Amino acid sequence: MGARTTPRLQDNEHWWPDQFNLSVLHQKHPDFNLLEGFRYGDAFAYLSVDELSADVDALMTGW
C-alpha cells in the first residue's frame, strides 16, 4: 500500500502559502493581438548583429 497523505498536504498552497496570485496573467481580451502587424523581417533589418553579439558577450562575461 502507498503512503497516506491528506489532500491538504499535496497542494501547492501547503508548500508556498504566500505565493503571488498569477491568475491575472491569464486574462486576455479576445481582440488583443500583440503581434498584429508585426513584421519579423522589418524588425530584423534594424538589428545590428555585431552590437547584439557584443551585448551578449558583455552579459555573459560581466564586462
Write structural notes for this entry.
It comes from Halomonas citrativorans. One of its GO terms (biological process) is response to oxidative stress. Keywords: Heme, Iron, Metal-binding, Oxidoreductase, Peroxidase. This is Catalase / Peroxidase. The structure is a single chain. The chain is an all-alpha fold and 63 residues long. The protein has a domain at 30-62. Helix content is 37%, strand content 0%. The protein contains three helices and no strands. 0% of the residues are buried. The model has no long low-confidence stretch (mean pLDDT 79).
| Tally of DSSP helical segments | 3
Q: CA-to-CA gap between the ends?
A: 57 Å
Largest sheet: none
Q: Count all strands and give the number.
A: 0
Name some characteristics of this structure.
63 residues, mainly alpha
Brief write-up:
This protein has 63 residues and is an all-alpha fold. The chain has three helices and no strands.
Reconstruct the topology from this structure.
Elements: H1 12-15, H2 40-45, H3 49-61
